[in-house]
Amino acid sequence: QSDNSDKSSAESDSETEVEQVSVYHKLLATLKTSPESESEEEEEDENESEAEESETEMDGEGSQETREADGGGEDRNDVTEQEEGTTDTAEQTLSQEQADGIDTSCDPSHGVIEEFTDVKHESEFSLETNFMEEESGDCNADERDGNPFKQHMDKELEEKDVEKLSTLPKTSSQSQWPRLGQVTFTSTLEKPKTLKADKEVDVKQLYLHKPLESTWPKVNKQFLSSVNKPSDAFFTPLQRELFCIMNTYRDLFYPERSALTNGEEIRHAYCLHALNHVLKANSQVLSNNAKKRNQKPGTDNDDHRDQGLTRPKVLMIVPFRECALRIVHIFISLLEVNDKRKIDVSNKKRFKGEFGSDPEEKPPNLKRPEDYEAVFAGNIDDHFRIGIAILQKSMRLYAPFYSSDIIIASPLGMRTVIGAEGEKKRDFDFLSSIEILIIDQADIYLMQNWEHVLHLMKHINLLPLDSHGVDFSRVRMLNLNNWCRYYRQTLLFSALQDPQVNSVFNKHCFNYMGQVAIRNVPLSGSISHVVVQLPHVFRRLEAESLTSVIDTRFQFFIDKVLPEYRDAIMSHTLIYIPSYFDYVRLRNYFKKEELNFTHICEYTKKAGVCRARRFFLKGEKQFLLFTERFHFYKRYTIKGIRNLIFYELPTYSHFYSEICNMMKATDNGVDATWTCTVLYSKYDAQKLAAVVGIERAAQMLQSKKNVHLFVTGES
Q1: Which of 197, 412, 513, 531 is the most buried (most CB within 10 A)?
Q2: Pseudo-torsion of CA 553, 556, 561, 562, nearest 10°?
Q3: CATH number for the domain whose boundaries are 148-293+309-518
Q4: Keywords of this protein's UniProt record, alphabetized (predicted)?
């Protein structure tokens, strides 16, 4: 499905405004190229002469793949200085986006499609006009004492509690859990206490909504091994500990999610929690509908406050359409009690067409690391949003947001509907009563546009600007008091600990139940996976503050590091640059100094990449400026590296060993002449520990001297 299916606001299918999308879409487009063009690129990796031929073809054919950047320059950032100042928020119309090769596989005509919302099933899925089916008995089960949902949502905070949450510092305590490791619990209202992991879980004590008790074991069976104890037949050890935290309605930050290993079992665990929450909330509303129907006229009962100011309760942020597809499949599986009792899913075929992928799209001969294949599996379009309504035994996909229980979206999908101040068409009222926010694979948003995540966090749980037809007699007092943020549970999953991700958890989570973060330290760093014999020189720079470190690093590099590499004998030097801003700054400096260099970033056209790689391999260009985002999205092997400079430590620690190991691809290189220099400051503590290990990092941060390490290849 082309991204112009997301052209309208979520609750209307008639809007025609043009949306703004990030340029890095164009980079994603090259991941979906034809087998022929990709195989040419791979052959270039093997044979330099074929690269020239491939380059000539690509320069001449003017295909979609080579039109990744506007203008005819090698790099889109050669066009204007204004564009150099942006990361990935340059604006393109959706029609131009199509011309640049964005996936339009679900639209045979490649024409403009309005964003689809299902208005046909509105009455069937209305919470106001439906009642609990008598035979279900689900609501009675949810009234049991100890039900975490009721305990959390029925808790009445006082003004003084809210004031404490807003002003007082949090207290923390730490404990060691068998599977999660070091667990840190912080809270403002509760005194420090040690959280203990449940050794065994009785599924009855989890207070799952009725159908989930029977469907969850079947759905989760794929992750359970035969060695699981009978008492532990429902969860893996990781799922058990994570779900026990989720089920207490505390915020959770788990920074060890891996697309290769535990990603899917984590996804299943949070889907169970989200669906359990929605089913309980909706059954409470339907049950109260029946009570109000049987109530004598004129009777005023305040016990029926069971709703928010708007209907959406759960917001799930995921990076790609494939992730949304998997989540919906899990929901359907959890709702189907058996093969005979299939649930009715509206618009399922459309959903599969727009969120699924064509297996033939992927070239069969590409060789990429396993983690790359896992992250970029399926439909990797990152501009989408979809509302889901669930009512008893039915599910409605493409529900208008104000009729949805669950919203699944990408950060960009949210950004384009929330809009910016001053825009005529913008809407964020539907975020006012979100009770569970799930942000999965947060590390990927660092490679997309982190500003979209921050923009979302600023617009969640605000008082709506319009009433949207709500019955105020049914709205909970916590929503009327604008205290929803203090009840919202945030579940944050990432593959790494990063200051920006940590900041969202620390500064945007106000849950009165407190926060739980997993804080394990890496014992051995990724440097142990370097297989080439290589001296590593870690050069420490002194910065007065976090805000000054960017300028300090640049000055340190041009004054102390670069002069050592200007000599022609130090040819074949690759400079790895995580920040796009730093890349632009260095590129401009190299141009000004008339240094012999070439450059590759996430916006460089395919022919430009091919040309730069060939120049660097042959030694015609002494320096190669190379961005982290390009490596993240492409993972090409760069041949000819003899000297390596990490301008800053990589975001993903395994990129350090990957880049170092590229040196072995140089056939005529002499081991003794290879060098690796790394710039770091005291503000890089987490990244440094992930590369060299916690003990060595601690020593390096205490010492003011440069550190020389030699990796033998067997470390």
Answers
A1: 412
A2: 90
A3: 3.40.50.300
A4: Developmental protein, Nucleus, Phosphoprotein
Residue among 106, 3, 126, 13 nearest 398 (CA)? 13
- Per the CB < 8 A criterion, the answer to whether 202 and 182 are in contact is no
CB 679 within 8 A of CB 706: no
* Furthest C-alpha separation in the chain: 93
Contact predicate 114/79, CB 8 Å: no
pLDDT for 605-662, tens place per residue? Answer: 999 999 999 999 999 999 999 999 999 999 999 999 999 999 999 999 999 999 999 9
Residue 480's CB is within 10 A of a number of other CB atoms, namely: 14
Where the chain has pLDDT below 70, the residues are: 1-114, 127-146, 226-232, 296-302, 360-365, 666-672, 710-715
HSE-up of residue 575 (Cα within 13 Å, Cβ side): 27
User: What is the reported pTM?
Assistant: 0.84
Provide the CB-side half-sphere exposure for 227 (13 A, CA). 1
Write down the pLDDT at residue 566: 85
H helix or E strand, kind and range, residue 532: none
Residue with token string 């990092």: 697
**And the tokens for 644?**
């390596």
Q: Is the dihedral of CA 580, 584, 585, 587 positive or negative?
A: positive
The whole-number pLDDT of residue 615 equals 96
Of 90, 89, 78, 86, the residue nearest 581 (C-alpha): 86
All structural domains of the chain with their residue ranges: 148-293+309-518, 526-712
The neighbouring-strand residues paired with 534 are 711
DSSP per-residue string spanning 21-82: --THHHHHHGGG--HHHHHHHHHHHH-HHHHHHHHHHHHHH--TTT-SSSSSSSBGGGS-HH
Q: Do domains 148-293+309-518 and 526-712 have the same CATH topology?
A: yes
Coil, strand, or helix at residue 171? Answer: strand
Contacts of 315 (CB under 8 A, 6+ apart): 406, 407, 409, 431, 434, 436, 437, 438, 460
Q: What is the CATH number of domain 526-712?
A: 3.40.50.300
Cα–Cα separations (whole angstroms), residue 602 to 24, 332, 539: 7, 37, 27
Query: 408: left (phi > 0), else alpha (psi -120 to 50), else beta?
Result: beta
SS3 607: helix
Closest CA to 257 of 520, 499, 618, 606: 520
Beta-strand pair 344-346/171-177? unpaired
Q: What is the dihedral of CA 283, 286, 287, 292, to 10 degrees?
A: 160
Do 654 and 371 contact (CB within 8 A), yes or no?
yes
